[in-house]
């Protein structure tokens, strides 16, 4: 049988999420990838492989990726027959406010992390094994340290206190703006190679500043710019900004409780090491001294260890200095980000419009994506699309597409620039399919392992035989999904407060990352910044 291939070994598993919730099937192993389906509790799936936190599965006729921790070997709702139920007790997570308890796959710190349980969360306790106890939380069975469980909710007597605790900042960055056309370099030196030239007024995320150089991020690229050409004040523009308020019949706390039921995720870089572990080499850098040290997810020894220990001699970047809950000084350090379950306070931070509405960049998550920017085609060609490959000179097509489909022009252009690599991708520049050259400007249908062929097939099926046809035709797909469902701001695409307020549950959300909407707005701001005349309409939610 040398000519026949061996079929891939598969297993059958079942979706194990909370009742009334669902598991998102995605096109790639990323929470920012497109959603293929929402799988209900108990649905049977075929598992092809598991890599890290993700499992490649087939559900119905769709193949994609899900979080492996929400799969189980048996249907969670199947009847166990006549077996005797296991005796259990109920306890509550009792960790410091703002911290969390790690649920592991085995009774050891080397066990795989299955979930992060927040303070006050109820768990079902099965058996104890030394300092560890077997529990079930959120439908997931694993092990936690017994010393962090109590018989009563630690906040039961002061139920509202946790809602008033200090909320975390989303990232250890600040937004600043360039005061001139500025070189973004690979290193903090004028001799370092130039990554790209940033336009005057460009918003950048600043991670650190030292010796006249700032480490910044723009459009997913990280580099260095001179601090002499950065300011905290955004430039004044001729654009017209209109804000409208949309009121919801639920409180911010109620909305946060609804979101917590669908396991929102965060990759916030909250990693700390005690100050006496570090020998400073500057005010933002240091070297690990006096042996090997644990990294923790909070400032204090009561917080949990994360990742491997840092060995003596390891260089670290220091983001901030804080007083720990153990009386020591701790450094927040730059460390590999890892996805984890978000705490309620972290969710509330991103849900609360008041944290962003006065920020000229972050407020654009409330940009009404169905409102016109009222742009001039000549200005767009000269100031935005010039030098953008196949998209150069195509402003009229974008304005037509926006008008026909009721989409904000800047949002449409930003989407195309991102998907085509500024007009340079293979799909954007034309692919032969069934004898015809077709174009795809938004990556529509480009998934399932062979992005170019699948994206070309979709373009062929829809007659996108010119760049203009692809720009105009593809806009219809963008409009029909989230915008057509009334989720016409990035904030509503992420959180869908209309469904939460009407039905009391979370549904049809674009991502599980709590910072998704927050992270999407830089490119939109910087495109608006290039123009002299435009309209912006913000729809800002208001909660009771």
Structure description:
Pfam families: Glucosaminidase, SH3_3. This is SH3 domain-containing protein. There is one protein chain. Strand 27 and strand 28 form a beta hairpin. It is built from 12 helices and 32 strands. The longest helix is centred in the last third of the chain and has 14 residues. The chain is 19% helix and 30% strand. Helix 5 runs parallel beside helix 8. With 544 residues, it is α+β, with helices and mostly antiparallel strands. A 5-stranded antiparallel sheet has the order 6-5-4-1-7, with no helix packed on it. A 5-stranded antiparallel sheet has the order 13-12-11-8-14, with no helix packed on it. It is globular and about 70 Å long.
Topology (elements, then pairings):
Elements lengths: L10 E5 L6 E5 L8 E6 L3 E8 L2 E6 L2 E6 L3 E2 L16 E5 L6 E5 L8 E6 L3 E8 L2 E6 L2 E6 L3 E2 L10 H4 L9 E5 L3 E4 L8 E5 L4 E8 L2 E6 L2 E6 L3 E2 L8 E8 L4 H9 L4 E2 L5 E3 L3 E3 L4 E4 L26 E9 L5 E5 L6 E2 L2 H8 L25 H7 L11 H11 L3 H12 L10 E3 L2 E3 L12 H11 L5 H14 L9 H6 L1 H7 L12 H4 L1 H9 L5 E8 L2
Parallel strand pairs: 22-32
Antiparallel strand pairs: 1-4, 1-7, 2-3, 4-5, 5-6, 8-11, 8-14, 9-10, 11-12, 12-13, 15-18, 15-21, 16-17, 18-19, 19-20, 23-29, 24-28, 25-26, 26-27, 27-28, 30-31
Helix pairs in contact: 2-3, 5-8
Mean pLDDT equals: 83
Estimated radius of gyration? 25 Å
Secondary-structure content class: alpha+beta
> Which consecutive residue ranges, at least 5 long each, have pLDDT under 50?
1-6, 80-85, 157-170
Count helical runs: 12
What is the assembly state of the chains in this entry? single chain
Report the biggest beta sheet as strand number plus sense, adding barrel if it closes. 5 strands, antiparallel
- The best one-word shape is globular
Strand content: 25-35%
Number of strands: 32
* Strands in their spatial order, largest beta sheet: 6-5-4-1-7
Distance between the termini: 69 Å
Helix content: 10-25%
């Amino acid at each position: 049988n040398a000519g026949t291939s061996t079929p891939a070994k598969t297993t059958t598993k079942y979706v194990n999420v909370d009742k009334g919730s669902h598991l998102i099937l995605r096109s790639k192993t990323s929470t920012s990838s497109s959603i293929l389906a929402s799988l209900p509790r108990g649905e049977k799936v075929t598992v092809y492989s598991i890599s890290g936190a993700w499992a490649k599965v087939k559900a119905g006729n769709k193949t994609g990726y899900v979080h492996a921790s929400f799969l189980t070997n048996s249907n969670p709702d199947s009847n166990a027959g006549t077996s005797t139920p296991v005796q259990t007790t109920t306890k509550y997570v009792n960790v410091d406010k703002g911290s969390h308890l790690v649920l592991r796959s085995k009774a050891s710190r080397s066990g795989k992390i299955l979930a992060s349980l927040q303070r006050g969360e109820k768990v079902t306790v099965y058996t104890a094994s030394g300092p560890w106890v077997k529990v079930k939380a959120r439908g997931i069975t694993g092990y936690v340290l017994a010393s962090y469980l109590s018989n009563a909710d630690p906040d039961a007597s002061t139920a509202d206190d946790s809602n008033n605790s200090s909320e975390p900042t989303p990232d250890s960055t600040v937004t600043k703006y360039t005061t001139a056309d500025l070189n973004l370099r690979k290193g903090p030196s004028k001799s370092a190679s130039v990554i790209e030239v940033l336009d005057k007024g460009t918003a950048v995320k600043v991670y650190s500043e030292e010796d006249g150089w700032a480490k910044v991020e723009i459009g997913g690229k990280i580099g260095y710019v001179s601090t002499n050409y950065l300011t905290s004040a955004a430039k004044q523009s001729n654009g017209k900004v209109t804000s409208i308020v949309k009121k919801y019949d639920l409180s911010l706390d109620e909305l946060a409780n609804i979101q917590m039921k669908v396991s929102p995720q965060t990759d916030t870089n909250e990693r700390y090491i005690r100050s006496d572990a570090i020998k400073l080499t500057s005010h933002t850098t240091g070297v690990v001294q006096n042996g090997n040290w644990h990294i923790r997810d909070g400032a204090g020894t009561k917080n949990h260890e994360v990742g491997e220990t840092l060995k003596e001699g390891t260089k670290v970047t220091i983001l901030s200095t804080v007083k720990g809950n153990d009386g020591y000084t701790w450094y927040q350090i730059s460390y590999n980000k890892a996805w984890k379950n978000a705490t309620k306070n972290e969710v509330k931070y991103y849900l609360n419009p008041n944290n962003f509405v006065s920020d000229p960049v972050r407020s654009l998550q409330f940009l009404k994506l169905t409102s016109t920017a009222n742009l001039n085609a000549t200005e767009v060609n000269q100031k935005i699309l010039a030098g953008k490959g196949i998209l150069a000179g195509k402003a009229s097509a974008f304005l037509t597409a926006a008008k026909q489909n009721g989409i904000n022009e800047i949002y449409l252009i930003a989407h195309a620039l991102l998907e085509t690599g500024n007009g340079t991708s293979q799909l954007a520049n034309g692919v032969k399919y069934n004898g015809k050259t077709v174009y795809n400007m938004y990556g529509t249908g480009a998934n399932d392992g062979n992005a170019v062929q699948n994206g070309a097939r979709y373009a062929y099926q829809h007659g996108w035989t010119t760049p203009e046809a692809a720009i105009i035709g593809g806009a219809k797909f963008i409009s029909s999904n989230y915008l057509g469902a009334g989720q016409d701001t990035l904030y509503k695409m992420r959180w869908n407060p209309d469904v939460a307020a009407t039905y009391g549950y979370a549904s049809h959300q674009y991502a599980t990352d709590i910072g998704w909407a927050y992270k999407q707005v830089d490119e939109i701001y910087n495109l608006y910044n290039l123009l002299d005349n435009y309209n912006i309409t913000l729809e800002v939610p208001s909660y009771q």
